[in-house]
Specification:
alpha/beta, Rossmann fold, 2 domains, 7-stranded mixed beta sheet, two-stranded antiparallel ribbon, globular, binds S-adenosylmethionine
Length: 299
Amino acid sequence: MFQLNRSIVLFILCFMNIFYIVNIQSIDYQKIEREVDQSPELMKSVENSFLQFLFDKYFIKSSLEDDSMLNVSFDLCVDFIIFKMSAAQLVKPKPHEQWWEQCLGLQVSMLTFSQWLGDINAQSRVAVREHVKNKKYKSILDIPSGLCIDFFGFKHNGVDIDYYVIDITPKLVDYAQSQGINVRCGSIEEIPMRDASVDVCYARHILEHLDYYQKAIFELIRVATKEVIIVFFIKPGEKSDKINYSDCGGYFLYHNYYNQQQLEQYVQTFSQVDEFEWEEVSSNEIILHIYLTTKQNSN
Ligand SMILES: C[S@@+](CC[C@H](N)C(=O)[O-])C[C@H]1O[C@@H](n2cnc3c(N)ncnc32)[C@H](O)[C@@H]1O
């Protein structure tokens, strides 16, 4: 039923390179290309998945919506690069990124994991849903999604919002898919989405689990247009940064403490940031709201 020959793929790849030069210079496509191409096995699986991806995402959709071929090609180029980025980055996860895949369900049971996360009534989740609803945001990226508890929370509250879901852990991505959720595998430090593509990026209980927060905050601000919401379970404070991790057979689980002033100074280095505020929600949780400039929002 679906016939896509190599010349069409090559044609699209040419478009990719042209659009890469003029439109999406921020992505280091050459590096990604090299990483993917160094592994023939990965390249094969990327090609196969790409064919399926084209079929699912564009050919059915474009015939229904009658997109022009040029627009389809442009979107295709960008999405394929993003898709390849995700694939490339999944090849070499860092030790702390692998902890979840390697230890959840084994050293740490899924029940314990779900108890760490709290259910849809966890105070920070309720506060975030209320806030997003009041702000009338139209789209949200939930990264990392974990067990997709917030996805179900928003559904439960009947909040009408385009919901995007990303997590780095393949077994959690599989779980989300089994729940019928359209989820992507990717890192918060290299989010596989375009600049300014959602109203709000929402990151709960993750910055303390990274080796540091800067790359993630950079990415969250890049992808959001209106606000970045970060929920901390270790409240930033006056003491100096403290990077703590436990080693589980070579896989690291960080529980970092961050200096609040230093974190605020970093947030303020972004031209897109209009203002920020802290919202205390419980004895151990605090929400950082980073509001982005209306200038960017009017684009
Ligand atoms: C403590 S859970 C939080 C999940 C969810 N935000 C919540 O509050 O229910 C941490 C999650 O981060 C994911 N994760 C760890 N490192 C990541 C990274 N670099 N990029 C994206 N997700 C990551 C793990 O797979 C796990 O699902």
